[in-house]
Design goal:
The complex is a heterodimer of chains A (344) and B (296).
Chain A lengths: L3 H4 L4 H4 L9 H29 L5 H5 L7 H10 L6 H13 L13 H36 L4 H15 L2 H13 L18 H39 L2 H8 L4 H39 L4 H10 L3 H29 L6
Chain B lengths: L2 H21 L2 H23 L2 H4 L27 H37 L1 H16 L2 H11 L4 H28 L2 H8 L4 H37 L10 H10 L2 H4 L2 H29 L8
Helix pairs in contact in B: 2-4, 2-12, 4-5, 4-7, 4-9, 4-12, 5-7, 6-7, 7-9, 9-10, 9-12, 10-12
Classes of the chains: A mainly alpha (344), B mainly alpha (296).
Amino acid sequence: MDTPSGAGRPAAGPTARRGRPGLHPAVRYLGGRVLTAVVSLLAVMVTSFFLFRVLPGDPVAALTQGRSVSVDQLEAMRRDFGLDQPLPQQFVDYCLGMMTLDFGMSYQYRVPVSELIAERLGPTLLLAGTGTVIAAVLGLVLGTRSGWRRGSLMDRVDTGIALTLWSVPSFWLGLLLIVLLASGAGLFPTSGMSSPGVEGTFAVALDVAHHMVLPVATMVAVVYAQYMMIMRSSVLDEMGADYLTTARAKGLRDAVVLRRHAVPNALLPTVTLIFLNLGRVVSGVILIETVFAWPGLGSLFYSGLRVPDLPIVQALFVVFAGSVIIMNLLADLVYPLLDPRVRT
Amino acid sequence: MSRAALVWTRRRRALAGYARAFAGNRGGMAGLAVLALIGLAALTAPLFVDDAALSHTGAEGGRFQPPGLDHPLGTDAFGRSVLDLVVWGARISLTVGFLAAFASVALGTLIGVVAGHYGGWPGNVLMRVTDWFAVLPALVMAVALAAVMSRSTLTIIIAIGVTAWPTTARVVRAQTLAVEARPFIERARALGGGHAHVMLRHVLPNVMPVVLAQTTLLVAEAILMEATLAFLGLGDAGTISWGGIIEEARNAGAVSSGIWWYMIPPGVAIAVVALSFTMCGRALEGVLNPRQRERP
């Protein structure tokens, strides 16, 4: 009956009354979440394999579309990519490769896909991270303001602007900014992440920041609306709460009631949702990277799509879906730390 | 009065109430008006735009003419009027938006009602599958599907439909659980109503309002997704859609040479339609869900 995992924990005794004896509830919670994430990840890998292989369309035929190739060349390509093997064998090879982070060779760049991903990961994280932080802060501040003064002119204007920007296709907004501010007014570079010939740490950082302004602005404009609407509605949910009436009855000023009482409670669901969104943001930057030719995973995905370069597309599918799964797992793990009520 | 007539009177009265509440929401009404206008333009487009004006070779305008009297929004690389293109593009964008939203809402409703009704392990399994689909990044999944299947409008509809249903399934399941907890379901069961009877005659009519609001919001998302896929070059090259026009404009160098009239109209069209659907959806949600109704 005794399981060693709970034995070393002093807290295991009294709290482990219900459920299986010996297992600390936190361990079970953690284990359950991790297990779910692992199963999801495996399912994503299986999907990625079958999606690109079993659905109609021969990768080799697609790759050589519009070019004249001999039957021998086609056969050689099939052998190179392991496509002449029976499907189960291909699947085993694919799984073994995934375990060792070997995603195969890129058709177009002729280098291992894992190298390409490692090289492009940094810029994507930089762009997505900066954009998310700015969008989250902006969304939280505006959402709180709107919710607290619901129905006011400011609320209606802020909500209207947010919903309008949310309805705008991000790629179009990016192109528009390029036309207006980059190729038109010449204020910002039109594409890429750095200019050639810039030396020195500080100068390089400044140059990258200069390149980042437009992509980050585009991303923030399109993304902040959802954070704002979530924060607005969770502030609204707290509005009728008794503890706010109590706080006011104590004679606290409106601003203090908002800052010390309403916001901390309203933040909880919002922060979780921001976490849940993080993974999605990584795949959402595909379009922005494409428009601004930002050297990240998104533009790699786009270039893989154009050829089509299956190993790249397949690996990035797993990476993008995997990042969502891992962020969801993190959100699940962080939530009990933030909210004492869920802690057991 | 017969039982059926009673039911219908009650439903009509409820609908009239909803309509009145909706009419009181200015944003929703504005969205509805804009949509009616654009829908009318899309439906009647064949009457005042002829095929020749939309073909690469038959258009009579010059290359990249700025907006003028002949062409209110200028012309594109092939001398086609951008105004004609945008009006024609509404047909594809709205069709894809509606069909994709219906496909995903139908699937989501089916799974949500079944999962909510049966509960237990079948319901759990269904919800786990839903959760898993919800985790897949929609854009990546849609792009992947559109990339492996043949390039057609149907592919785009399927790609959007397959990726967008989990939200609906969750919302519908929650609503199903709420409905099934009410006494009249127990009464129906006690009178011998089977699973199919309960789901079709009692649960479905009661989840329909939520489904309607969900559909409206999803159409906006589907239209944005369609534009995105077309922009990434995954659309049907033979059709004219808003995303496709933006892609053509970009490929024709409109960005670097400042041909703004080629790029701005289709983007504005997407934004206006998506915003209108969102406004309608939010208004509907507010009307149908008293918890969210604007308090004074």
